[in-house]
Amino acid sequence: MKKQxxxxxxxxxxxxxxxxxxxxxxxxxxxxxxxxFTGGDSKSKIGFYAGAFVNxxxxxxxxxxxxxxxxxxxxxxxxxxxxxxxxxxxMQQNLGYINVPIMLQYNATPELYFEAGPEFGLLVxxxxxxxxxxxxxxxxxxxxxxxxxxxxxxGLGYKFTPHLGVNVRYVAGLTKVLKNEFGDxxxxxxxxxxxxxxx
Length: 199
Fold this sequence. Notes:
This protein starts with a helix and ends with a strand.
């Protein structure tokens, strides 16, 4: 009887291990951003993101997903401005980041998962753009901004097939955007909606 019970335990343990130890899955992702800065003088702008990920199962219920993503972020000025003889309209700050999110995912069902984790960002481009007295003005202002961005993300996803899914994520920036800023510090906010493709 003891041998039979031991055999059953070994078989069940092997089956459980086999179910929870699937190999990592690589994939690609892309979608749209709706980004802004914290504070009352900015509004959201639309951008895009694209990158790659690897999903590593930790158990039947949990997996970890590191990603490398190019993300187009920034914000628009909420109002137009009058400065001396200048009329400034349609001002916006365009930012390009290489982001590395590391998401811990909880698989509520085989199709539906919830996720949360940190995001590390490296600023690779920055451009201020607007209309001054009717003429378009563009300037690279990367030197005035912090090169590193740190945020916290939360989201959910749904897999329609073993290879195709959709993901929604919100990332709140925890570090300020400008190097030298007085008063309330502006931080990144980013809402993402996109498609994941699993190989």
